[in-house]
């Protein structure tokens, strides 16, 4: 296991574009947090995101994991291109000839995916913790460390998404096409969602099983939970109640997809002649 | 003798095409094997199968007596197939470090092997900055990293310029002289003839011959012969019992007489002289590997 990780890390360390994109990802990640703490001063309007309660514990866990998740596309590009470049440079073939088994190859790539997911999760935890400690109105430990399931959901979300990217990289072999494919899945899911919602309501429970939808279901939008927004929403629609919890079912669905993507990558590689 | 690799009825089909057809042969330690065949005869596919990158359709192969799994066995094998494949943005040294990690070899081997292929002073440069000849030499260094039990080379001089070909050939000769087992697939028959003790010849995926180069030459060779009066010579040769057949070659300026017994050229000369026939050309030789190969692979 350690050997596989070291092999993968060696590849990563000496891959310039992967390095640049990864650094960009983590810089942007921190920048978003900083941006939110900037005070906007337009004459009469004195506005600061941080003062709107978004950095209050435990809400901050929900808000930050939801907002920074869109940055995952940076790492998606890294993962897809690292997979497909193994094909285009024929280094996958050479790796196998040198004595790596196909199973070990997939495992080493999955370790890479896992590494990115863990690193992102740790970062979101640390950044949120710091921001919270600076701006939060509450600072009791019991409040700080409540609702941490959002951080866990964030990890699962990234793991599932990166596994999908890895699968597409292996399946399609060309990074541009793989990313196009990812976009296509997103569009198709959108169409299926619309068709089911407006035409065949009976199939509605199936929507949550689609891969990208299941990943986005993990962390629900936090905006309507914010006090000012919520009060507005409730004044318009007094019935407005929404469950923002991380549902166990969606975690299970995403983990199942993760398994399917990783095992599917292995099966594809096993069947293929290189 | 220790068997390194054994193929048994190995078959690979790509749809309707049978690329490798029930191929069986063995590789024994210490020998240098040439694997010959026209383009598309299934050489690379065969190597791909034993190197774990192509899935066989049926049949078996086993490395080192079949005690270990293929990918484990490959750690004791050094192989380069077709083009040298490395990570373009990594330096030569970092590429070799990666191979060390995969094969479980110590980094200390890197400089030693780079020295052999004369790339030590270029080890900091990225792979993509290398010329094709350097890339191929790096591939050889990489294949040698683990001091392999067997070195597999698929067309190692393909696409190289004369200097490059010469360098690669020298390296192979040096390695072969050290007693390493080598499996060399090549079109360049004189190259194979110079270094190989055994050959496997395949055409359309079927084995035509496997064995030592000497035994392949089971005939006793032939003589090229000429005299002033070719007709007289022709009939005289036809009467000798150790001459199998006589054909006219070189626009009928000389004859080619195939021997059925191991007769020295001087012996033939003496016999002819005793009949009053004096030759002005007499060369005894065996078929070159190229001639035999072309003969064998004739469709």
From TrEMBL, chain A:
Bilayer-crossing regions: 20-40, 60-83, 110-131, 151-172, 179-200, 246-269
Coiled-coil regions listed in the entry: none
Keywords assigned: Membrane, Transmembrane, Transmembrane helix
A Pfam family this chain is assigned to: ABC2_membrane_4
Name of the molecule in the record: ABC-2 family transporter protein
Organism name: Psychroflexus salarius
TrEMBL record, chain B:
Record domain ABC transporter: where: 5-229
Record keywords: ATP-binding, Nucleotide-binding, Transport
InterPro entries: AAA+_ATPase, ABC_transporter-like_ATP-bd, ABC_transporter-like_CS, P-loop_NTPase
A Pfam family: ABC_tran
GO molecular-function terms, A-Z: ATP binding; ATP hydrolysis activity
Similarity comment: Belongs to the ABC transporter superfamily.
UniProt protein name: ABC-2 type transport system ATP-binding protein
